[in-house]
Amino acid sequence: MFVQTEPTPNPATLKFLPGKTVMKEGTIFFQNQESADSSPLAMNLFAVKGVESVFFGQDFITITKAEKSDWSLMKPAILGSIIEHFTTNKPILKDNSNSKISEHTKSENDSDIVVKIKELLDTKVRPAVAMDGGDILFDKYDKGIVFLHMQGSCAGCPSSTATLKMGIENMFKHYIPEVREVRPVEA
Predict the structure, then answer these.
(1) CATH number for the 4-87 domain, one of 3.30.1370.70, 2.30.40.10, 3.40.50.720, 3.40.50.300?
(2) Alpha-carbon distance 65 to 39, whole Å?
(3) Domain locations in the chain?
(4) Which residues are registered as beta bridge partners of 15?
(5) What is the rounded CA–CA span in Å between residue 165 and residue 152?
(6) What is the DSSP code string of the chain?
(7) Predicted confidence (pLDDT) per residue in 103-123, tens digit
(8) Strand 145-152 relative to strand 181-185: parallel, antiparallel, unpaired?
(9) Which pLDDT tens digit goes with each residue over 125-165?
């Protein structure tokens, strides 16, 4: 098995591509070791010194390292954990897992504006940020302001504010005139 790695716009994160499906549906973000007990793979990754957070996308894993940690020392152990996990065909999540898998669900109660926001996120924003090892999820819309969760490489990325304000906010304002501002939701 060969696992590719790719840099992301966030220098503290790397994207690992195992060449296999990681999450069949949705994404999941483990902000710390305490939140990872539902995933054998996430627990093994957190056992690597310096791993700060773990994010699972459809076909990738994004690891964020602690500030003073060195990728050259961490990568061999991370790659070993990923290869061992996938070659033994273990599940990503335990069967009895109560982990919160992030999915964009459309609700009958969504206003027309919220439906448009979710549609733009799903068709334009999320595919682009997934290429960089992250995800952006809708939280709420209130009085012209869209609140979004940044996950994976997007969380804590130095360029995420610029992406949010100059990219996503401008696109939302263009397609949905009711949107006045986009703000991140702190986890």
Answers:
(1) 3.30.1370.70
(2) 19
(3) 4-87, 112-185
(4) 6, 62
(5) 18
(6) ---EEEE-SSTTEEEEE-SS-S-SSSBEEE-SGGGGTT-HHHHHHHTSTTEEEEEE-SS-EEEEE-TT--HHHHHHHHHHHHHHHHHTT--SS-TT-----B-----TT--HHHHHHHHHIIIIIHHHHHHTTEEEEEEEEETTEEEEEEEETTTT-TTHHHIIIIIIIHHHHHH-TT--EEEEEP-
(7) 556 667 788 999 999 889 888
(8) parallel
(9) 888 888 888 888 898 999 999 999 888 877 777 777 777 88
pTM: 0.78
Query: What CATH architecture does domain 112-185 belong to?
Result: 2-Layer Sandwich (3.30)
- For the record, the structure tokens of 180 come out as 């006045």
Q: Length of the chain, please?
A: 187
Structure token pair of residue 113 = 């504006």
